[in-house]
Amino acid sequence: MMVCEYKPGLEGIPAAQSSISYVDGQKGILEYRGIRIEELAAKSTFLETAYLLIWGELPSKEELKAFEEEVRLHRRIKYRIRDMMKSFPESGHPMDALQASAAALGLFYSLRDLHNPAYIRDSVVRLIATIPTMVAAFQLMRKGNDPVKPRDDLDYSANFLYMLNEKEPDALAAKIFDICLILHVEHTMNASTFSARVTASTLTDPYAVVASAVGTLGGPLHGGANEEVIQMLEEIGSVENVRPYVEERLQNKQKLMGFGHRVYKVKDPRAIILQELAEQLFDKFGGDKYYDIAQEMERVVEEKLGHKGIYPNVDFYSGLVYRKMGIPTDLFTPIFAIARVAGWLAHWKEQLAENRIFRPTQVYNGKHEVPYTPLEQR
Ligand SMILES: CC(=O)SCCNC(=O)CCNC(=O)[C@H](O)C(C)(C)COP(=O)(O)OP(=O)(O)OC[C@H]1O[C@@H](n2cnc3c(N)ncnc32)[C@H](O)[C@@H]1OP(=O)(O)O
Ligand SMILES: O=C([O-])CC(=O)C(=O)O
């Protein structure tokens, strides 16, 4: 067997062959099934892009209509899931509530028919349809309200915003939210997708696959950074404080949230679009002082760390978009998960098509032949 050099964080090690998405980190290019995200953000919808990723081709009109209809029909969550969620502590993080609820969904669909295309499709539809309902239901229940039932006359993103805020969203906000989902749906072998593929490789059910990926996405080095960015901008508080804040963090060897990426060495192409979306919202609904702080921070960080290829990533501007929509900060990462579930499921399907269980090796650096010391001698 060939012995490879150990690479912390598996940097540069391919973990799969995949035709789902592609990143050029030097040029700042991201493609889904070969189509640039700029084009999808301008012309597609989240459900159409999800279909593209999962089934490999853009759907025909009829295929898209059928997929949208199936998703619409599966939006409601079971009473027993709702009751279980009601018993979660209100102070708990919504990502934990989502992870537990996604796993609990598997209790209702325990048959694992992984070779049956109908099972794959049903699971995909059910997860994409119900995850937004779970996120909105937890949000309302932790405030002491009853969850709102999905509205069949609203499309995917408008319905989520309606379930969250108990009122029909502004059309521009709903459109921008849908574009945000497109921008977050997929990103090659990131940590949560790797986690999804490892779980999938054991041939467990898709609910376990999604639950493990949700758990991985929540960490502050990954999807959880979008929440931390807003907390950081709030802590900075003013444009004048940006430079001393950045300098102090760097001096203390602390990370600046929303900056840096394993693959991108230029500004993340998603951050460029998210920044434009934030500006569209500010034009319509008024500005946000945290945007001025964020822009100053981008300038200072580029000056200090640009030579290392550290620029804003997807998590830097997304929170400002969601904030302007009135979404609470701790829902930013669950919203990331609402989008990314389609990417995880595309990888689940791809993994199953040519599965081999993930079982890497390790470089053992412990002891050998250690004698057992009896308890009374320790
Ligand atoms: C959806 C997503 O997951 S996007 C990423 C979201 N995460 C964040 O925004 C958290 C902040 N960023 C980071 O922690 C990192 O840039 C990561 C996790 C995204 C990538 O990590 P890695 O590829 O392992 O890079 P690593 O942490 O080894 O950093 C490499 C160098 O850049 C520096 N660096 C990387 N990111 C940052 C940052 N955000 N702030 C300050 N310095 C940074 C490191 O200190 C290190 O410097 P050194 O070589 O002088 O020691
Ligand atoms: O690719 C990564 O490592 C992280 C990322 O940007 C994502 O998952 O969207």
Automatic annotation (TrEMBL):
Gene3D superfamilies membership: Citrate Synthase, domain 1, Cytochrome P450-Terp, domain 2
Pfam families: Citrate_synt (PF00285)
InterPro entries reported for this sequence: 2-MeCitrate/Citrate_synth_II, Citrate_synth-like_lrg_a-sub, Citrate_synth-like_sm_a-sub, Citrate_synthase, Citrate_synthase_AS, Citrate_synthase_bac-typ, Citrate_synthase_sf
PROSITE patterns found in the cross-reference section: CITRATE_SYNTHASE
Pathway where this protein functions: Carbohydrate metabolism; tricarboxylic acid cycle
Keyword Plastid appears in the UniProt entry: no
Family: Belongs to the citrate synthase family.
Keyword Transmembrane: no
Alphabetically ordered keywords of this record: Transferase, Tricarboxylic acid cycle
SUPFAM superfamilies: Citrate synthase (SSF48256)
Reactions it catalyzes: oxaloacetate + acetyl-CoA + H2O = citrate + CoA + H(+)
Domain of life: Bacteria
Protein name in UniProt: Citrate synthase
